[in-house]
Write a structure and sequence with these properties.
The protein has 457 residues and is α/β, with parallel strands linked by helices. The chain folds into three domains: 122 residues, Immunoglobulin-like, CATH 2.60.40.680; 185 residues, von Willebrand factor, type A domain (Rossmann fold), CATH 3.40.50.410; 98 residues, Immunoglobulin-like, CATH 2.60.40. It has seven helices and 23 strands. Strands 6-5-4-7-8-9 form a six-stranded mixed β-sheet, sandwiched between helices. Helix 1 packs parallel to helix 7. The longest helix is centred in the first third of the chain and has 22 residues.
């Protein structure tokens, strides 16, 4: 069957700046269906919510699944499942029906799929029961159930009891869920399916993807197990790998601070088998917001399985910094050899003079999302008698942020140029005097929902 599932999961959805989280890589492989004949039961939901395009796409997906298994078992689409494997069809609504037994005829299997009509409630327990009854306990074939559903259990008994019994008898259970109709119970699918969940559960909100899901599953079931596996995982430069746990299969080692290599000699050669690697990642640097953890992840094996891992994202909260002004561009000055002095033309310097530079930061508290803020900074200098003298006014438009809730915004590096010629301290030494200033801040939202009755904006 080759590699049947690959996944990359994070232990957290968000962290503070400099925080750490766990990454879990998982891989599942199963043996070749030719050398390991397999009996497969497709358990198909035909309840009322499947009416229309969901049922049509389900039928297309199921028939493509049958075609792929047909070709994989004897290398040709000859209308017969070969090398001792079989497929059976069970459909269900308020009750379940064994639409076929475990057979090899592609035409009969497709006819059973085409005959499905939608209507009624959803009885998962009876579906699992009817599917389990199709398997011959005396057969040495591998046993696989593929449960497809788009809804919660609304009729019958507890399906988890039947699924647990099936797994205890060596049946591998895959669960495909269609969440677009709003009723699928993701946790129930995870309870029914074989472990790990990441390898045996697939959920899509779009019924147009059902054909692809069935196709991918059939291709994986038909491939051989994987050997000489090499996985290289490189995290984004915003992170570094701080520790790597011992994997459940194979060996793992750090190549550098952002890349590890995981090697597995063989997986799923004689039976369904999973492998898991966990490692710890820490945020570094100043990047923040929603960041993809992966920079790249590559997979290779001797069988040339095509394996892709998801690229999960994590929200890094380092606060929100606004830099309304950039630092001035420097002017390069050099003195050659043993020159005692040098004259250099530094060019024009607009709107500035010799003196001191005062740089202010201010934190705007609890700024709501999607609202720009107008910020004004008024600076005055105070003489020895308490009189104030104007020294500058800065106005800044703070861009709206898109976080899900109100956040503090740090506005940094608001610079004022303070020429020494304006010193009002009263001291004689112009360059070293202690000068006193007062800064006043005014801030208000630019964007708001208010409209006067007689004004159209």
């Amino acid at each position: 069957m080759g590699v049947t599932n690959s996944n990359k999961e994070l232990s957290k959805s968000e962290i503070e700046c400099g925080g750490s989280f766990q990454v879990r890589l998982s891989l599942t492989a199963e043996p070749d269906i030719v050398s390991n004949p397999t009996d497969i039961v497709l358990i198909l939901d035909r309840s009322g919510s499947m009416a229309g395009s969901p049922l049509a796409n389900l039928k297309s997906g199921a028939k493509k699944f049958i075609d792929i298994i047909d070709e994989a078992t004897d290398s040709q689409k000859d209308g017969q499942i070969g090398y001792g494997s079989h497929i059976g069809i069970v459909s269900f609504a308020e009750t379940a029906t064994q639409d076929t037994q475990l057979i090899t005829s592609v035409a009969e299997l497709k006819a059973a799929v085409d005959a499905l009509d939608s209507g009624g409630s959803t009885n998962h327990a009876d579906a699992f029961t009817k599917a389990l009854q199709l398997f011959d306990p005396a057969s040495n074939n591998a046993k696989v159930m593929v449960m497809f559903t788009d809804g919660r259990t609304t009729a019958g008994g507890d399906p988890n009891q039947v699924a647990t019994l099936a797994k205890a008898q060596g049946v591998i259970i895959y669960c495909i869920g269609l969440s677009g109709n709003g009723g699928v119970d993701e946790q129930a699918l995870k309870d029914w399916a074989s472990d790990p969940d990441s390898a045996y559960v697939a959920i899509t909100p779009n019924d147009e993807e059902l054909e692809d899901l069935f196709e991918d599953l059939a291709k994986n079931i038909a491939k051989p197990g994987a050997t000489d596996i090499v996985i290289r995982d490189k995290v984004d430069p915003c992170f570094k790998i701080t520790s790597v746990a011992t994997p459940t299969k194979g060996t793992a080692s750090l190549i550098d601070a952002t890349m590890l290599e995981w090697k597995i000699d063989e997986l799923g050669v004689n039976k369904s088998e999973g492998a898991v690697l966990e490692f710890t990642v820490q945020h570094v640097g100043t990047c923040s917001g929603e960041i993809e953890v992966n920079e790249s992840i590559t997979y290779s094996d001797k069988e040339k399985n095509k394996v892709e891992f998801p690229s999960p994202k994590i929200d890094v909260d380092c606060g929100i910094d606004i830099l309304p002004e950039s630092c001035p561009d420097p002017v390069d000055v050099s003195i050659d050899g043993c020159e005692d002095s040098v004259e250099f033309d530094a060019g024009d310097l607009g709107m500035e003079s010799l003196g001191r530079i005062l740089q202010l930061d201010v934190t705007l508290k609890d700024v709501c999302p999607h609202k720009r803020v107008a910020l004004a900074v008024i600076l005055t200098e105070v003489d020895e008698h308490g009189n104030e003298y104007k020294r500058g006014l800065k106005t800044v438009v703070v861009p709206a942020h898109t976080r899900s809730s109100c956040h503090d915004i740090v506005v940094r590096c608001i610079k004022f140029v303070l020429p020494e010629s304006l010193d009002v301290s009263g001291a004689a030494d112009v360059m070293c005097n202690k000068r006193k200033f007062k800064a006043r801040f005014i801030a208000n939202y630019i964007d708001n929902d208010f409209e006067c009755c007689d004004i159209v904006i």
